[in-house]
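Supplementary Text 2. Reproducibility record for the structural model of the 471-residue chain.

All settings were left at their defaults, and a single model was retained for analysis rather than an ensemble. We include the record here because the model underlies the residue-level annotations in Supplementary Table 4.
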Amino acid sequence: MGPQREEGDRDRRERWAELFDQLDLNKDGRIDLRELRAGLKGRGLSRGSLERMVKVGDTNQDGVLDFEEFIQYLSNHEKQLRLMFHRLDRNNDGQIDAAEIRDCLRSIGVNISKEDATRILKSMDKDGTMTIDWNEWRDHFLFNPLTNMEDVARFWKRSMMLDTGEQLSVPDDFSEEEKRSGYVWRQLLAGAVAGSVSRTGTAPLDRLKVFRQVHGSSDFKGNALRAFQSMFKEGGLWSLWRGNGVNVLKIAPEMAIKFTAYEQIKSMMRGGNEATTLRVHERFVAGSLAGATAQTAIYPLEVLKTRLTLRKTGQFSGIADCAKQILRREGLAAFYKGYVPNLLSIVPYAGIDLAVYETLKLAWLNRNRGLADPGVTVLVGCGAVSSTCGQLASYPLALIRTRMQAQDSVRGDPKLSMLSLLRNIVIQEGVAGLYRGISPNLLKIVPAVSVSYVVYEYTRIMMGVDIEGGI
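Retained model, structure tokens:
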């Protein structure tokens, strides 16, 4: 037994030595963060995870890993991975199957369907046996700084909160442990900070979109550059950010209300049985209802955002003044102009966004069996494509909503109903008129998602919730 174990240790050391040699690109006997990022590219690891790996392994605090530090880190990490493997392997047959994955995650409050458990298994199953042996488990998680099963659950869940400026998507699912620990609210806060920076960065494009939605083709002609020049001439550089303050202000309450409503609606749908896993279409229904609840609560801020975005220089002194003038001249009902088309737009946006995202992610997992979960590029790409598809489906309703919100801002414009507006747009501008302003809206998706991701990751690191995993 002793010689056999010694031989196993020697084999492991030789394998680790080969890994060290592959990662040590400049062959100086040390591995720094740059070499780790280059050598482990494509494994879906965040910068924060790699930094944590160096920090844990760097015993002499010189900022790099020498050979012995690298070996010691992998030795300790493999011990932790082996403990987690045995915890998952409930029948002690040396193999992990989909049922064991599902049971283990359920024990820490993460409920997944049988199909999701099978997808997780396939992403790690290199030999096609529909089970995971120790070697497959170790190779999959060797460079992921996971320390317990909750970390593994988060890695598999891949949950990111990226803001595209259209807060209509289905909220994330969180485990009971994540809710108790305060992880959820730190995650929501990171999403709110990321959304604030992202929306502020793309605010000029958003203002251009609103102008084109409201004024159509008759009053607001020319390309984007001429439009920006017109705005600049009327109100100076800062006028490009009109309406952004209230747009940022509504992120946190909308996110909090939507998440709280989503949890309550899910609980009602489960009928008190928390172990029940909601299917994709059930998540969509719960998410749509939660979105409708949040939109109802914060909708007056949506109206204020549109009015402030369209305002002329000196028209309002601020958010409070705008609200006061609307209330005095138009009454309380004005704060819910365009509410019906806004509510109707939630269903096509959230449904298509979720369906396209799940389809793209499943297609990636099926084509890349045996690899780590989708990396940042894949996740951001899936999010951008699904959001684009959702917007294409719901945009006509969003355009009508904005025109109804802005009716008092356009001098001499009759107060039309949703159907009257729809008919007038089609008659005067054709079907293309229903998509007026969509180009700046689509143009802002990639920068919005990218900025949101970067800020989101750094905010999570600062708040201590940088667990490897994304959407």
